[in-house]
Automatic annotation (TrEMBL):
InterPro entries: DEAD/DEAH_box_helicase_dom (IPR011545), DEAD/DEAH_RhlB (IPR044742), DEAD_box_RNA_helicases (IPR050547), Helicase_ATP-bd (IPR014001), Helicase_C-like (IPR001650), P-loop_NTPase (IPR027417), RNA-helicase_DEAD-box_CS (IPR000629), RNA_helicase_DEAD_Q_motif (IPR014014). GO terms for cellular component: cytosol; ribosome. Residues 412-423 have a biased composition (Polar residues). This is Superfamily II DNA and RNA helicase.
């Protein structure tokens, strides 16, 4: 199937082809017919599967450029994700000659400049719910003619502390507004709230879980040695781009300083930086000026950065869902990737949880001469998920739908894996610089052995 067969305007199809995007990815193939038919929908698909274009293309195709009203609103949980969506929409509209005016409305930017921008009558506004409600209260943003409301990373937006802003926005919408909820994960609370906002909701579910092209490893070490191990991993594997996760901004700054001391090109991204500092860090990472970006979870949601070969969890997430979103920064659109978690002996118990909850195998490794190799010793093991009691094909009954079978409308797609598909990325990366590299990132390993008894990890000590 091609994009032109899905009913998109020829100019928009041509703009996609100039980006070498000829074939829709599974979530796009499943979502476009639903959204272009004017239906509200929840799109659930793994990270890096192409969800942004799945909703942007129908919106851009349906906007009336002659109108002077806001016709579509996209909400995002972080400024970085909002600006990424803004860039994709702006570039597509310009290259296709659609004449769609796009404006970002995020916190941290001057309200006066945003008010001036609203005087130009944008058709599509993208930003944070808090800033939009503020502009609505000032009487500067009117949404009565809005036809689309998109909640990107809906599970982050539909939480208790953010619902007040969401309800203020939905209260200003007309009866013809269609809702699109987008997420890599689907929980009963999110589904319940979404159904309350849009009762006639179609579900588009494709490619759940984590891309099978990603290899998952963990290395056990002392907490005080984690930065040293990180330095050795970056030196040994020499990834084109590596994204390192920590819990706190202060940790990101300290780690960045220590790595820069060892002549590693590093940038840090966290909430303590202002909007301009955060954007500068992302730009340096995208353009290749910094090969490593150390970030708090602010970067874990939705960001699409081309060429991230390695994700390192220095501070490991306590929840499997957070691990999923961090891991999704690599292996985008079917590309290969590696996720390495540096764990203390106590933290290593979380590896078993990740394996079980996310249906992945985690291999315990050690660093030998700049390469990650399977750990040796009686305690070394590869953790694999145990058979689940629920779900199709697992020998158990199907898990009941929390919303009830009578209200459920579902549009699902069974499509080939993304590894055979064309990567989709809208970031323009600098050409790779020729340099001496260490051993290539090791490929995924598989085995026939079943799940082993959890008997404790092998501890590594830095040289």
């Amino acid at each position: 199937m091609s994009f032109d067969s899905l009913g998109l305007p020829p100019a928009l199809v041509q703009a996609l082809q100039t980006r070498k995007l000829d074939t829709p990815l599974p979530v796009q193939e499943a979502a476009l017919p639903v959204l272009m038919a004017g239906k509200s929908a929840m799109l659930v698909s793994r990270t890096g599967s192409g969800k942004t274009l799945a909703y942007l293309l129908p919106i851009l195709a349906g906007i009336n450029a002659e109108s002077m009203h806001v016709q579509a609103v996209v909400l995002a949980p972080t400024h970085e994700l909002a600006m990424q969506i803004h860039r994709v929409a702006t570039d597509l509209s310009r290259d296709a000659g659609l004449g769609v005016r796009v404006q970002s409305l995020i916190g941290g930017a001057a309200v006066s400049r945003q008010i001036e921008g609203l005087k130009k009558k944008p058709h599509l506004v993208i930003g944070s719910a808090g800033r939009m409600t503020h502009l609505m209260e000032l009487g500067k943003l009117k949404l009565k003619e809005t036809l689309w409301l998109v909640l990107d990373e809906a599970d982050r937006l539909l939480i208790e502390e953010g619902l007040e802003h969401i309800r203020k926005i939905t209260g200003q919408l007309g009866p013809e507004t269609r809702f699109v909820f987008v997420s890599a994960t689907e929980g009963p609370a999110t589904t319940r709230i979404a159904r309350g906002l849009a009762p006639n909701l179609d579900f588009v579910r494709t490619q759940d879980g984590i891309s099978p092209a990603i290899r998952h490893c963990y290395l056990v070490c002392e907490e005080r040695d984690k930065t040293d191990w990180l330095r050795k991993v970056l030196r040994g594997l020499s990834p084109e781009r590596a994204l390192v996760f920590v819990h706190r901004g202060a940790s990101a700054e300290r780690m960045s300083e220590r790595l820069e001391h060892h002549q590693l090109a590093v940038a840090d991204l966290h909430g303590a930086h202002d909007k301009f500092e955060r954007q500068a860090a992302l730009d340096d990472f995208r353009k290749g000026k910094a090969q490593t970006l150390i970030a708090s979870d602010i970067a874990a949601r939705g960001l699409d950065i081309f060429g991230v070969e390695l994700v390192v969890n220095v501070d490991v997430p306590s929840q499997s869902r957070d691990y999923l979103h961090r891991a999704g920064r690599t292996g985008r659109a079917g590309a290969e990737g590696l996720v390495l978690s540096l764990m203390t002996e106590a933290e290593s118990r979380l590896a078993k949880r990740y394996a079980q909850d996310l249906d992945i195998a985690l291999e315990q490794v050690q660093l030998v001469r700049g390469a990650l190799v399977p750990a040796t010793g009686d305690s070394a093991q590869t953790l694999r998920p145990a058979p689940r009691p629920f779900g199709p094909g697992r020998g158990g009954k199907k898990r009941p739908d929390p919303a009830g079978p009578e209200t459920r409308k579902e549009s699902a797609a069974t499509t080939p894996p993304t590894s055979a598909r064309q990567p989709q990325s809208h970031d323009k990366a600098a050409p790779p610089v020729a340099r001496k590299r260490g051993p290539a990132l090791p490929g995924a390993k598989s085995g026939k052995a079943g799940q082993k008894v959890w008997s404790g990890p092998k501890r590594n000590k830095p040289a």
